[in-house]
Amino acid sequence: MIYSAVILAAGAGTRMKSRIPKVLHEICGENMIRRVIGEVKASGIGDITVVIGNGWEEVKKNLKDFDVGFALQKEQLGTGHAVQMAEKSLTDEGNVIILCGDMPLIRRYTIHSLMKSHENSNSDITVLTAKVERPFGYGRIVKGSRGELIKIVEERDADDKERKINEINSGVYCFRSNVLKKHLCDLSSQNEQGEYYLTDLVEIGVKNGYIVKTHELIDSEEILGVNSRKQLAEAEAIMRKRIVEKHMDQGVTFINPEHSYIDSDVFIGMDTIIYPGVTLKGNTVIGENCIIGDNSKIVDSTIEDGVEIQYAIIKDSLVKKDTTVGPFAYLRPGSRIGEKVKIGDFVEIKNSVIGDGTKASHLAYVGDAQVGKNVNIGCGVVFVNYNGKDKQKVIIEDEAFIGSNVNLVAPVKVNKRGFVAAGTTVTLEVPEGTLCIGREKQKHVKGWVDRKKLKENKEK
Ligand code: UD1
Ligand code: CA
C-alpha cells in the first residue's frame, strides 16, 4: 500500500499566548513538529507535506534539514482548509495519513496500527480515536445505536448530550487518497467558528456511502493535543517519564525518576546513577558507572566511564575516564578534561585542555589554557587570559606546580616541572625545573604591636 502524510502546522496557537509558532515549542529538547515528523518517517512514510502558515518562515527554517514538502496556508480558515492547501501534493492512488503538528506524543507504532486497521477493514476513512476521562476541548465521536460512526462534532458545536461522549477525535486520520481529493471541496464553514473543519469529512463520507471507521487507541496519552502551556507541561511530563523509563530498562539508576530531565537523544551507559534535579541536554553522552550528582546540568557534552560529577554545569565539553568534577564547578565550552583529573569546588574552566592526573582542587579560573599531565593548580590561581582587547593563551607543561593565589598573565608558559611559588604574578616564561617566585620580601618590625597599643591608650 502506498502512503503519504500531511501534517497540519499552520494554526496560530492563540491559546499558547506566545510569539513563537506553536509547533516550535519544545518537549524534552525537541520541538513538537520535529517530533511528529520523526515518528511519521519512522513509521515508513517518506512522502510528507507540512502545511505551514502562522510564522511559516520560522517553521520552514527550523525544518530545513528534513526532507519534507511544504504547502502554505496564508489564512488559517480551519483544518479542512489547511488540507485543501496541500491538495496538489496528494497522489491519486494509495492513502494519506493526516496528523496535527501539535501532538508531540504520537508514536510510530500507532501510525502503523492505524494503517493496518484501515487496510483490514478496507476503509475509505479511518479516524484514530480514544476514550478519555476529560474530553473537554476535543471533537466528539458520535455513533449510532449499532455503534456505527455518524459524525465528529466539535466541542463548541456540540449539544449537551454530545458533550458527554467520552470518545474523542485524536486529529489523526487515514483517508483513501482519491476519496479525500474528491470531497475536500464539499466542506463548508457553517459552524460556530466559521472554519472549514476537516472533521466534517466523516459525515460527508458516511452520507456518500463510503466505509468510515474508527480505530480506538488504548493508550490515550499519546494523542494529547497541545493547545496551552498547561498541556505543554503535561506532554513534557509524559515524555520525560518515557525517556527515563527507557534508560532504566537499559540499566541506569534514577534516584528520583520524576525529578530527572533528560532530552530524547541523550545516551547513558549502564550502572550510571542519576541523582535528583539532573538535566542532560542535546547531544550528551554519559559513560558507564558514572555518578551524576544532584542538580548537575550537562549540555552537548561527552562524559566517559567512571566520572563523578557533583553540582556542576558542563557545556560543550569532554570529560575523560575516572575524573571528578565539582561540587560547584563550571566547565564552559571547549574544555577537554583528561583522565583521573580532579576539578574541585568553585573551579571554572573555559576552552582549555587539561592533561591526565592534573588537579585544580579549589577556587581557580582556567581560561584558554593548555595544561599538561600531573600539574597542580593551587587554590585561587587565575589564568589572566584577557587584556581587555583579546584572549591569549597560557601553556603549563607536565608536572608543573602552580602555588596558591598565582596569576598567570597570558601569553606565558611554565615549562616542565616548573615551580611557581604562592602569590606570584607570572609574566615571563618559567624554564624547566625552575622555581619562580615574584613577591615582596617579608619584613618583621619588632615590638610594633605593643607600641601601637600604648599610643592608642594615651589618646583616650
Ligand atoms: C482539532 C480537531 C478536533 C480534535 C483535535 C485533536 C478539527 C476541526 N478539530 O481540534 O476534532 O479533537 O484537533 O487535537 O479539526 N491548523 C492548520 N490550519 C488551520 C487550523 C489548524 O494548519 O487553519 C493546524 C494547527 O496548527 C494544529 C492542527 O491543525 O496543528 C489542529 O488545529 P487546532 O486549532 O489545534 O484544532 P483543535 O481545536 O485542537
Ligand atoms: Ca489542537
Written overview of the protein:
The protein is an alpha/beta fold and 460 residues long. It folds into 2 domains: 3-223, Spore Coat Polysaccharide Biosynthesis Protein SpsA, Chain A, CATH 3.90.550.10; 310-436, Hexapeptide repeat proteins (UDP N-Acetylglucosamine Acyltransferase, domain 1), CATH 2.160.10. It is built from 9 helices and 39 strands. The strands form 6 sheets. It has a 16-stranded parallel beta sheet that branches. Strands 14-17-20-23-26-28-30-33-36 form a 9-stranded parallel beta sheet, with no helix packed on it. It has a 7-stranded mixed beta sheet with strand order 5-4-1-6-10-7-11, with helices on both faces. The site of calcium ion (CA) has 4 residues, from loops.
* Rg, Å, rounded: 32 Å
What helical percentage do the residues reach?
10-25%
Compute the number of helices. Answer: 9
Distance between the termini: 104 Å
CATH architecture of the largest domain: Alpha-Beta Complex
Computed structural class: alpha/beta
Please mark out the parts with pLDDT under 50 across 5 or more consecutive residues, or reply none: none
The overall strand count is: 39
Strand content: 25-35%
Q: Per CATH, what is the topology of the largest domain?
A: Spore Coat Polysaccharide Biosynthesis Protein SpsA, Chain A
Q: Which cofactors or ions or other ligands sit in this model? A: uridine-diphosphate-N-acetylglucosamine, calcium ion
